[in-house]
Amino acid sequence: MSTLAVGTIKSASGNPPTIQNSSGTEIGTYCRAWANFQASNGSLEADFNVSSISDNGTGDWTVEFTNAMPDVNYAVVANCCHTFNAGNNDVSVCSPKPRNGNSNPLTTANCRFVGSTHSSGLSSYVDMRLVTMAFFR
Prior knowledge:
20% of the residues are buried. This protein is mainly beta.
């Protein structure tokens, strides 16, 4: 067992470094972008590789990447919270939004997504209090 302690890891190519096991098999990659923001007031709290977040209307946002994804086959992990009240029974959902009839909302430059709540069988877009998301490829 050994420990590597460094301040910076650089890739030999334009892509992020990959993580390999001792036999050289790729077992992981680094997160390419992430963001933490309050959609209710448009405040970007913290981020990596995100140039901006556009408000397209109530509960509808576009995350713009500083450095583009290599293709549209990346994964999005999103979490959102509509309210912090313990008694609220709403279920909050963040999901990518299809573009112009195309089922794939992902582009190499950005990802558009929506936030909605489901309460008493009703569903509506809402500006979430807190949204966190990460993008992997």
